[in-house]
Structure formats: structure tokens, C-alpha cells
Amino acid sequence: MRRDSRLSVALHVLLHMSEMDEAMTSERLGEMMDVNPVVLRRMLGGLRDAGIVAAEKGHGGGWSIEKDLQTVSLGDVFDAIGPANPFGIGHRDPNPRCPIERAVNRAVGEALEKAEEILRQRLCGVAVADVLKKAKRKKVS
């Protein structure tokens, strides 16, 4: 099963961008991250719409951090990059006729809703800038 790594990629990109003194093109970021620039532009577009990054067109243009990353939570980034299914499990058939499968769907659905609620709370409780602080602390140690 393929994992959705967009949140990790978005955070990685944001943290590298936060350490740059200039705007970064999606091509340059793509090379750094080994990610297709088109995929990055789509992701960065969501971050731009959320006010987290800004885009400058033309010579010397590119993407730059717009918002203080101490005020941006991991949950903000998660929301900005678009819909995701954080868990790789789900219903076999969303509209089953079988009463047992309906009961299974209900039980699994309730558990997934609770897990997503807990995940969202945890993501919203961590600032993006704090991730960078921890990375630098580990690097120095």
C-alpha cells in the first residue's frame, strides 16, 4: 500500500525554505527534495491559499515563507495541502446490504473518526518552527 507523504514533504520544504534568504523556485526545491516540481507546485499552492507561503512570478521569483512558522501548526499544514486519508484502512463496501458488514463499517468508522480527532489535536498542538528547533538540537548533540 502506498503511503501519502505529502505532509512530511510539505513540512520538509517549509523548513528548508525558512532557512533560505531568497525565494526558491519549485524546480530548485524539487531537486533538493527529489520531488517532481509539479507535485510541489500543487502542494505549495494549497499552502499559498492558506497564507503560509507566497509566490513571486518573474525573474528572481519563487516561493517564500509568508507567515511566522511559530504561528503555523502541523494541523494548519495538514489542512492546507488538501484532503488526505491519514489511515490506510477503510470499508470494503461503503453501502453494504449485509447487516453484519454495516455493523463492521459503523464500528470501524467510529474508531477511525476518533483516531483522526486525536491525530488532528496532536498536529494542531505542534508549531512548524518547533520541528526545526528539535532538528537543530539533534544536529548539535
Summarize the structure.
This protein has 141 residues and is mostly helical.
Task: Please name the defining characteristics of this protein.
141 residues, mainly alpha, Arc Repressor Mutant, subunit A, two-stranded antiparallel ribbon, 2 strands, 6% strand
If you had to describe this structure to a student in words, what would you say it looks like?
Helices cover 57% and strands 6% of the residues. The protein has 141 residues and is mainly alpha-helical. The chain has a two-stranded antiparallel ribbon with strand order 1-2. Strand 1 and strand 2 (62-65) form a beta hairpin. The radius of gyration is 18 Å and the shape is elongated. The two termini are 36 Å apart.
Shape, per Cα inertia axes: elongated
Question: End-to-end span in angstroms?
Answer: 36 Å
Arithmetic mean pLDDT: 90
Give a quick account of the main beta sheet: strands, pairing sense, barrel closure: 2 strands, antiparallel
Helicity level, as a percent range?
A: 55-70%
Topology, number of strands? 2
> Cα-atom Rg, whole angstroms?
18 Å
Number of contiguous helices: 6
**Helix and strand sequence:** HHHEEHHH
* Strand adjacency order, main sheet: 1-2
CATH top level of one domain is Mainly Alpha
| Parts with pLDDT < 50 across at least 5 consecutive residues | none
CATH homologous superfamily grouping of one domain: Winged helix-like DNA-binding domain superfamily/Winged helix DNA-binding domain
